[in-house]
């Protein structure tokens, strides 16, 4: 096998420990209060139903095998039907929605140290995640990890999500490496292993004790430190 010349990493569940609850009653109550300042009056239950209906409409009209919903488009369409066409308000709705639904949001303790090791080894890094562009860039900045990545590949930039191998191909092309020269580090057996493998990449599955089964990854790491050691011996 060729030496590893680049590393592509997943975000949520791999570098970032996160828990969200978008069904809490106060999420849509406060969001409804927020859009009222811009002249849009919607009861919380109506707003919640509108968001879910718009997501379904978005997905059912998409011909992709693994379609991705763009939350910014969802809110823009809802507001437009209520007579407000304002990209800033639609974008801010995404961020307010995210902030209200977020219950846990922090880096794993090994994330920054391992990212530093990878960069010091001279390995170019890319981020590849099923994530919303309306807030993910800012979240990476808040956590101080955006500086480690030469490229960020987010599913909402392209309209399709993992395990679509095209996302992994895009990351390799941006890093200017062949798929066999790159490794993907992720935590989702279904999305990450299938997507990376179908693009010809090696894949490390990070299992922090929550996964079941024996999925066929190239290496199963208990944490990012083990992933780094595996990469270091092959770079």
Enter the CATH topology name of the largest domain. Answer: Rossmann fold
Tell me, what's the shape?
elongated
User: Order of strands across the biggest sheet?
Assistant: 5-4-1-6-7-8
Radius of gyration: 19 Å
Number of domains: 2
Summed up, the helix count is 10
Q: What string gives the helices and strands in order?
A: EEHHHHEHEHEHHEHEEH
The major beta sheet can be summarized as: 6 strands, parallel
- Overall residue-averaged pLDDT value: 95
- So, CATH architecture of the largest domain? 3-Layer(aba) Sandwich
Short overview:
The protein has 235 residues and is of the alpha/beta class. It is 47% helix and 16% strand. The protein folds into two domains: 6-17 and 107-232, HAD superfamily/HAD-like (Rossmann fold, 3-Layer(aba) Sandwich); 20-103.
Description of the molecule:
The chain is α/β, with parallel strands linked by helices and 235 residues long. The chain folds into 2 domains: 6-17 and 107-232, HAD superfamily/HAD-like (Rossmann fold), CATH 3.40.50; 20-103. It contains 10 helices and 8 strands. The longest helix is centred in the first third of the chain and has 17 residues, at 44-60. The termini are close together. The relative contact order is 0.18.
């Amino acid at each position: 096998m060729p030496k590893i010349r680049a590393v592509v990493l997943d975000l949520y569940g791999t570098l970032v420990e996160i828990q969200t609850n978008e069904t809490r009653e106060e999420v849509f109550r406060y969001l409804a209060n927020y859009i009222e300042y811009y002249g849009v009056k919607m009861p919380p239950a109506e707003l919640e139903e509108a968001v879910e209906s718009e997501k379904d409409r978005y997905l059912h009209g998409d011909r992709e095998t693994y379609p991705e919903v763009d939350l910014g488009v969802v809110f823009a369409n809802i507001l437009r039907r209520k007579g407000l066409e304002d990209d800033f308000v639609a974008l801010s709705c995404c961020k307010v929605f995210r902030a209200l639904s977020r219950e846990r949001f922090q880096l794993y303790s090994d994330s920054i140290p391992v990212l530093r090791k990878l960069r010091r080894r001279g390995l170019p890094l890319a981020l590849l995640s099923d994530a919303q562009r309306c807030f993910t860039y800012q979240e990476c900045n808040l956590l101080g990890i955006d500086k480690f990545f030469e490229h960020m590949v987010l599913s909402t930039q392209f309209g399709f999500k993992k395990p679509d191998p095209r996302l992994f191909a895009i990351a390799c092309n941006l890093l200017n490496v062949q798929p066999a020269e790159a490794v993907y580090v992720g935590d989702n057996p279904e999305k990450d292993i299938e997507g990376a493998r179908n693009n010809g990449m090696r894949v490390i599955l990070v299992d922090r004790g929550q996964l079941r089964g024996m999925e066929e990854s190239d290496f199963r790491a208990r944490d990012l430190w083990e992933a780094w050691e595996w990469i270091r011996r092959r770079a």
